Amino acid sequence: MAIKQRTKIDASFSMSSMTDIVFLLLIFFLVTSTLVNPNALKLLLPKSTNQIQSKQQVSVSIKHHLEQNSFTYHINGNVTPVSRGEIEGIIQGLLESEEEPSFSIYADKTVPVDEVVNLMNIAKRNGYKVVLGTSPE
User: Fold this and answer.
1) What's the predicted TM-score (pTM) here?
2) Is the model's pLDDT at 11 over the cut of 90?
3) Torsion, Cα of 109, 110, 114, 115 (10° steps)
4) Cα–Cα distance, 88 to 118 (Å, whole number)
5) Which CATH number fits domain 47-136: 3.30.420.270, 3.40.50.720, 3.40.47.40, 3.20.20.70?
6) Going by C-beta distance under 8 Å and a sequence separation of 6 or more, which residues neighbour residue 81?
7) Distance CA 35, CA 94 (A)
8) Which residues, 6 or more positions from 1, have their beta carbon under 8 angstroms from its beta carbon?
9) DSSP bridge partners of 129
10) Which residue, among 129, 113, 135, has the nearest Cα to 51 in the 3D structure?
């Protein structure tokens, strides 16, 4: 009795799993690219040649409204402004669980130094490290 086995090799390739992976990667990069920009406010930062890459837990932005000659403070790029008296309590709440607490200050070019120094005094009182945000030259 001669039984013959026929084994045929299928030379086709399914691309469906590859397209699923590419689609998932596309979604991942779209989501993470929106999280990269922590500074949602449009600020004209002073220029500097010294740029450091430091991971700051909190960012405080000071926006100068020239027409009213007033200032608004924004924490972590939030559009809703915070009053000057509330800033210290909010920063303390955000940084209380950090080992090396630090925050960055982003101020318009037109913001007086007094406003920036007020935020630096908050950092000194609480033992925080502070970084002044600039834009590259």
Assistant:
1) 0.57
2) no
3) -80
4) 10
5) 3.30.420.270
6) 63, 72, 73, 74
7) 18
8) none
9) 102
10) 135
As a whole number of angstroms, the distance between CA 40 and CA 106 comes to 11
Q: Which residue has the tokens 């993470």?
A: 32
Give one DSSP letter per residue of 33-50, joined into a string.
HHHH----S---PPEES-
Q: Which two tokens stand for residue 64?
A: 């100068």
**Pair of tokens at residue 66:** 């020239």
- Classify residue 83 by its DSSP letter: -
What tokens were used for 36?
């990269």
Question: pLDDT for 75-124, tens place per residue?
Answer: 888 888 888 888 889 888 888 888 888 888 888 888 888 888 888 888 88
